[in-house]
Amino acid sequence: MQSKEIQKLCEQAQVCGLQHNHHIPEELRKRINIADTSKQQLCPDDVNQICRWSGTDPSAIAALQEAAEHLVNQTKTQLIKNHPELILPGGGLHPEQRAEACWRDCWNFLRVCIYAVASSCPHCTDDEGMKAVRALYAFMAVPMHGMNLALETLEELCKTRLDATSNRKEAECAQQAFQHMREQLNQTSMNSC
Predict the structure, then answer these.
(1) What angle, rounded to 10 degrees, do the helices at 44-54 and 96-119 form?
(2) pLDDT tens profile 143-157
(3) CA distance linking residue 156 with residue 164, whole number of Å
(4) Distances (CA, A) of 84 to 70, 73, 90
């Protein structure tokens, strides 16, 4: 693959598709798009506006956003503890720059999941953008087993945190959003004969 092709994939790689979901009011889609384009969490006003529309508890979203870095660090710790071979020479997360890219991706998947929970829309991905993510991951030989384990761990940590505050609806939506993202990430192209 040529560097121009890689650059094009990087530009097309897009996890979040909520800005294209016409069930969400246009103004709220714009807010999500602005946050997603800048790879930022939702600001408090965005959280309140989106949650007012969706019926989601805004304090649950605020708590997840505040805990995002901690949740990714917990995921990192658990993944390395359970699969230390990933960070050893020859492992999928070696050298360190590769591992750091994985943790950044985990943070971004979590960020999109939080948008999904705020809007109560677990089917949160962009089909074409995820196709580019899959192609980029295949080219970069991203260890998909490790990425799936990381996303499963993030899912469980979010669900546990939300269940602990009696935010069951939000916990279920987070679980569905992570499952949806994993399904999209693991899709394979099927060629018919």
Answers:
(1) 50
(2) 898 899 999 999 999
(3) 12
(4) 20, 15, 12
- Rounded to 10°, the helix 44-54/26-37 angle is 140
The residue among 111, 93, 100 whose CA lies nearest residue 178 is 111
| Predicted TM-score (pTM) of this structure | 0.94
CA–CA gap between residue 132 and residue 14 (Å, rounded): 7
Token pair of 97 as six digits: 């720059």
How far, in Å, CA of 63 to CA of 110, rounded? 13
d(CA 42, CA 89): 38
Ordered structural domains, the chain, with CATH: 3-185 (1.10.490.20)
Type of residue numbered 36: D
Looking up tokens 């939300």 gives 162
